[in-house]
Amino acid sequence: MQLDRLRAWCRAALPSGLTATVWLAALPLAGQEPLWDDFRERLKSETASFGALLHLNGDFQADRTFPGGDGFAVAEFRFGVSGRLDGGVDYLLQSNFGDVLDARVGFQLHRALTIDAGRFKTPFSGEFLTGAGDLDFVTRSQSIRALAPNRALGVALRGPIAAGFSYSLGLFNGRGGSTGNPRGRFANVARLAWRADGIEIALNGAVNGDRVPLIELSDPAFATIRSLLGADLRVVRGPWLLSAEVDRGDGQLGTVRDPWGGFLTGGYQVRPGSQLLLRLDHLDTGRSLDRRTLVIGGWNFSPTGPTQIQINAIFPVNGFGEEPRLLMNLELML
């Protein structure tokens, strides 16, 4: 009877694309998954682990004020292979069928020293370094999307130090492209992290070679930032989650001066495969009219091992006169 009422409410209150999603989430979690187990056994090994990621997004507003229109989109569709070979060599190759996302080869020279070369994620920000299939919300936070360095071509050193500490530092093409570095300028990016018992704390930094774009920022409005500093925290204790990050840039382009932003997230796992989240997300570009604060409620539901449903309700507190927005993501990660 309760499931019948839920189905009727979904049909009456939600856009048709969301009805099936919420109804599916009301079903019990899958038990044994022999097909998924067989796939992992055949295509995932230490030397070559094949995988794919598909994100189908839904975006809805009662009164459309966010760029774009209501509807559905293929937000991610990528394929990759990674593994470890003899002689301390590891690799990652990943493409979204339109661009090379990652093409990295690592050489472990010592337990505490691995050299990476190629195109890969710069070591800045815990949320940016989290894979697209493991994000807490449908999209990354405002500050990460606007300020954090993106993937870039270069070399980096990484490894553990002692007592839970690890480091990563690299030299990358200043413009972040995969074909060259026409100005001959470079960006330096570094991360120092400490991890133990479900806690990770890290400091991040990036310095630009000159006033060319700092690697490949997602938002060109911040392209002349000379340096970035950031810190992030993630704590998992039983069903509870706490994560936070703050980032600040040094630089100016027009009226944008020393932008900064960050987020604070709390989460609770209601049951295995079902998690509730709440986030406060802020971005300040240095202009009085461009201080944007969002409150985001999230629900993550995993009906089977390779699938996940994410629903985010976004409520603007200030900035840009936006209306509340609903984001949905259906994920298949093999």
How would you describe this protein?
The relative contact order is 0.14. The protein is built from five helices and 18 strands. By secondary structure, the chain is mostly beta strands. It has a 16-stranded antiparallel beta barrel with strand order 1-2-3-4-5-6-7-8-9-10-11-14-15-16-17-18. Strands 12-13 form a two-stranded antiparallel sheet. The chain is globular. The protein has one domain: Porin.
For this entry, give a set of tags.
334 residues; mainly beta; Porin; 16-stranded antiparallel β-barrel; two-stranded antiparallel ribbon; 18 strands; 13% helix; globular
In short:
By secondary structure, the chain is mostly beta strands.
**Succession of helices and strands:** HHHEEEEEHHEEEEEEEEEEEEE
Percent range of helical residues: 10-25%
Annotated CATH architecture: Beta Barrel
Q: Structural class of the secondary structure composition?
A: mainly beta
- The fraction of residues in strands falls at over 45%
Strand order of the largest sheet: 1-2-3-4-5-6-7-8-9-10-11-14-15-16-17-18
CATH superfamily assignment? Porin
In whole angstroms, how far apart are the ends? 35 Å
Q: What is the class in the CATH system?
A: Mainly Beta
List low-confidence stretches.
Answer: 9-13, 211-222
Number of strands: 18
**Gyration radius from CA atoms, angstroms:** 21 Å
Largest sheet, strands/sense/barrel: 16 strands, antiparallel, barrel
- Compute the number of structural domains: 1
The CATH topology name reads: Porin
| Inertia-based shape | globular
Estimate the mean pLDDT confidence: 84
What is the secondary structure topology, with strand pairs?
Elements: H1 2-13, H2 16-25, H3 34-43, E1 49-60, E2 71-85, E3 89-95, E4 100-110, E5 113-121, H4 126-129, H5 142-147, E6 151-160, E7 165-173, E8 186-196, E9 199-207, E10 227-237, E11 240-250, E12 252-253, E13 256-257, E14 260-271, E15 274-284, E16 291-301, E17 307-318, E18 325-333
Antiparallel strand pairs: 1-2, 1-18, 2-3, 3-4, 4-5, 5-6, 6-7, 7-8, 8-9, 9-10, 10-11, 11-14, 12-13, 14-15, 15-16, 16-17, 17-18
